[in-house]
Amino acid sequence: MNIDQKKLDETIVYFQTNPKVELDEQFYPVYTYEMSQAFVFLELDVDYLSNYEKITAKGIRIEEMNIGQLSAMFTFIQRGERFCDGHMATYIEDGTVLRLLLRLKELSKSLQNDL
Fold first, then answer.
1. pTM metric for this prediction
2. Which of 4, 11, 63, 94 could serve as 35's disulfide partner, Cβ 3.0–4.6 Å?
């Protein structure tokens, strides 16, 4: 699986208007099916807020994260979209999602080699 930032950036369509809102200034991002699938590789972390705080407090870099920490990060990014339109887009655009996916890929290869 080849993952690159340009491909991830193409998975967002910006400036879709919300038909339920009368103001034309109400926009939100729309993510493709492929982008939404990036967030289903791991189980949702039910304690993601606490775990996210631990990750950030300890300054754990993505390249050092384990599966549980990756799950917390993916859950944090995905759930944040529910409360803030464009939350996922921010993490896609700054390369965080790409780095998380690459780390997950690295760990999955390591797990396969251990079998």
1. 0.77
2. 11
